[in-house]
Amino acid sequence: MAIVSRLIQKFNASYAEKPLLTTMITNAVLGGIADTVAQNITAIRERAVRKGGPGKDDFFAIEIHELDRKNRLPSTDIVPPSERLPPPFDFERLTRFMAYGFLMAPLQLKWFGLLARAFPITKTSGTGQALKRVACDQFIFAPFGLTCFFTFMTIAEGGGKKEIIRKFQDIYVPTLKANYVLWPAVQIINFRVMPIQFQLPFVSTIGIAWTAYLSLTNSAERARE
Fold this sequence. Notes:
This protein is mostly helical. The protein is about 80% helix and about 0% strand. The chain has helices spanning about 1-15, 20-50, 60-70, 90-120, 125-155, 160-195, 195-225.
C-alpha cells in the first residue's frame, strides 16, 4: 500500500506539472504491459502445442491447454488454434502497442474533458450524468477508437487498404460487441467515482485485459492472412 500511495503521489505531482505528457507516458507503459501479457499467453499455448501437451509441473500451460481442448474454436472464430498464432515474443509488436497508447492519449484526454464539461456531475445529478457520459462514450468514441486501433495497427504492420478492409470485415463487429460487454460497467465506475486526472489511467489499467484481447485478436487475424 505504501508503494501504491507513493506512486499516486508522484503521478499527481507529475500530472499537475505536465498533464498531457504524463498521460501519454502512462498510456504507453500500460499498453506495453497489456501486449506483454498477450504475447506470454501466446507463448504458453505454443509451448504446450510443441510438447504435444503441457508438462505435469507446468500449471499455467495445463490450464490453457485444458481450455483449448474443452473449447475448440471453430475455423471462423477470431482467435485461431495455437499452432497458427505468432511467435512467442515480438518487440516490434510491443513497440506498436506502446506507440498507439502514446499517440491516442491526447485524444482520449480531450474526450474525457469534453464529457466532463458537457455532463457535469453534481450531488443531485451524479448517476444520471454519468450514464449520459457512458452512452456518449460507448456509441461515439468506442466505434471510433476501434477504427483507429485496427487502422493504425494494420498500417504499422505494413498493410494497406485491402488488409484494412479485410480486418474490418472479419473482426471489427465481433470486437465491438465484446467492447459492449465490458466497458459500459467500467465507464460508469470511472465517470461516477474517479477524479478526472485518474480517469484515463483507470481506463488504461482496467484496459490491460482488454488491450491484451485486442492484441490477440489483431495478431490472430494477421496470422490468418
